[in-house]
Design goal:
Blueprint: E1 9-12, E2 17-25, E3 32-38, E4 45-49, H1 50-53, E5 71-73
Antiparallel strand pairs: 1-2, 1-5, 2-3, 3-4
Amino acid sequence: MRELKIGGVYRHFKGNEYRVEGTARDSETGGTVVVYRQLYGEGGLWMRPLGMFLSEVDREKYPDAEQKFRFELIG
């Protein structure tokens, strides 16, 4: 599995950039989620499961995506 870099800047495969603020535990599932901030617009805070954050792009759904992974570290 790929490693997550806390404080790293990642590009989503659709083009926007985000900074990983940290990780947290989901109170319902006990799973690890990534907490990240959008680096555009209002700078909103988001979260998603760690496995999903580090996953590859679904090629059936997005065959023309240029990135291999959903989020790729850029800085």
